[in-house]
Amino acid sequence: MSDLTAPGFPEEEVRRRARAGAAAAFPPPGDYGRVLFGAEHGGGPRPYGARDPLDTLRITPPVLMPHRLARLIDLGREPDYRDVDLTTAMGGFTSAMPVYVSALGSTRAAGGDLGTALSRQAGALGLPMVIGENVVPVNGYGRQGEAADRALLGRLRAYTQELPDGRGGVAVQQSTEDADAEVWNLVYSDPAALPLLASGRLAFELKLGQGAKPGLGGMTVLDPEEAARIGDRYGLDDVFGDGRVLRSSTPGTFTAEILRQQIRLMRNNFPRARVWVKLHPGRDVAEAARVAAEAGADAVTVDGAEGGTGWAPEAFPAQVGLPLAECLRRLAAAGPPPCLLVSGRMWEGGRAVKGLALGARAVGLGRAALLATAEDPRAGLIRFAECLALELRMLISALGKYTPEALDRDDVWSPDFPAIPSAG
User: Fold this and answer.
1) Which of 10, 154, 213, 240 is the most exposed, having the fewest neighbouring CB atoms within 10 Å of its CB?
2) In a 3-state reduction of DSSP, which class is residue 334?
3) DSSP 37
């Protein structure tokens, strides 16, 4: 190492890349399966500051509250936060609150007992849950002797065993490699999925991208044995130099017409399943959402750049994709889809209420759901959801409203985000 220095320049980052080569584009491979990465991770630049725009917004209760008066007349008494009804219809499902569990795929952090415990608790709560991409190509479906706790069928059974009548639902995500494995065909014809299908609580989600790495497919780190087992299904790249390899899914190719035809194909081939579409925070997110909604999608999910992941190149969470607040602004300007679901660093009631006020029907829990379940695999997510529900009720009530659907853009304000209309 020379004594050459460059004050004010990210010298150590340059030196790290000079030492490690291509591996330096990623977090340390030893962190895979232990660390959940997202927009706040890493030392790269943050183009929209230390706090994202959604956090800078203020929730703004009015003084005069006609909705509260209407609730008072309905109840025959003064209402309080306990009178807020959080029940929410989303994507053809009914949820106990305006919350769903975001897509958790084949990453090691969501595998094994943790993924099963999370599924069980999500079912008990009556929250819709998305089973993410690559579970079947990597871990199997669950009927050929695969480890039940890692296979898709294990998560499906754990969820449905706890699910109350009339609540929740499962959306099964599919990307390119899943399509090759015919994941949707397997689920649609499986007797284990019949109770969900018969009650209208099964959806298939077409994945166009994810917030943590827009434009790329899913990525994981594999040891040599795993790489040899699935190397014929994925792209493998020996970037780490220690025997472990990078496994990459293909992101898929979409135009407006391809998206329309894919949704029509889904509705034709799986008429009893709901159709969900997941978008990454691209600059044309409003146009893509419009195309999906007009083609008949029951829900459109937008994953903001703050979204977490099991693994991503460090440049992506730091610098790629629109912040969720900007996605919501563009969607509002163009006219949002009838059922908009959003995700991206959701973990407490204030951030969730802001997303709902800006046009979302519900918000997704990703890292928060995993961390809560890891804290207590028996009831951690359940207790987390109890806290979130209390915060939501208090905040919505403070705005003089008593359902999440009543929230609108006048309920939030920020001098640093002038594109959001203020109350007239």
Assistant:
1) 10
2) helix
3) B
Matching residue, tokens 């990459």 = 248
* CA atoms of 27 and 37, how far apart (whole Å): 9
Structure tokens at 271: 């008429």
Nearest-angstrom CA–CA distance, 21 and 191: 49
Q: What residue type is 264 in one-letter code? A: R
Q: Walk along the chain (424 residues) and give the pLDDT tens digit of each residue.
A: 567 666 776 677 777 766 777 777 777 777 666 666 666 543 344 444 456 789 999 999 999 999 999 999 999 999 999 999 999 999 999 999 999 999 886 666 666 688 899 999 999 999 999 998 888 888 788 776 666 667 889 899 999 999 999 999 999 999 888 898 899 999 999 999 999 999 999 999 999 999 989 999 888 888 888 888 887 888 888 888 888 888 888 889 999 999 999 999 999 999 999 999 999 999 999 999 999 999 999 999 999 998 876 678 888 888 999 999 999 999 999 999 999 999 998 999 999 999 999 999 999 998 888 889 989 999 999 999 999 999 999 999 999 999 999 999 999 998 765 555 444 4
Rounded to whole angstroms, how far apart are CA atoms 380 and 384?
A: 6
Q: How far is the first Cα of the chain from the last one, in angstroms, to the nearest whole number?
A: 62
Secondary structure of 135-155 as H, E, C letters: HHHHHCCCCCCCCCCCCHHHH
Beta strands 362-365 and 99-104, pairing class = parallel
Compute the radius of gyration of the chain from its Cα atoms. Answer: 22
pTM over 0.85: yes
Q: What is the three-class DSSP state of 313?
A: coil
> Residue 11: enclosing H or E segment and its boundaries?
helix 11-20
Q: What region, left, alpha or beta, does residue 5 occupy, with left being phi > 0 and alpha being psi -120 to 50 degrees?
A: beta
Between CA 324 and CA 243 the distance in angstroms is 37
H and E: helices and strands count for the chain: 17, 15
